[in-house]
Predict the structure.
Amino acid sequence: MRAALILALAGLLVAAAPAAGLERYVPMKGAPGAGPAKYDRVFVQQLGPRRHDRVVVLVPGTNGGAGGITPVARDIVDRVPRTQVWIVDRREQAFEDTSVFATGDPEAAQDYYLGLQVQARARCRRSVRRRVGARAVAR
């Protein structure tokens, strides 16, 4: 029984492994724009084997990025034979600071990206407590 469970789990892992290896995130040179030349590129998330001769290009909505439609792209690759899906991230993606996300430390990311919001909320709460406390003493 235990051996069958281990074999089933191994089979699932083997089946899932190729999909992860078929995803690439590559920069492509774009047209010159305002600002530094290093940002004159777009990023394309490519899913599916390179040998496939059909390519579906998806472009996320106004404020969206490739990550928002990656599940749909994976589904297309799985269901449509001999098809790659490319998701185009706009030039603005190059401006995003994702360095702390790349560390894989969720607490560091929260502190770095949300620290200002958390600090502002704490200041607001302290201010409210002081005002409410002052009124309670005056009564």
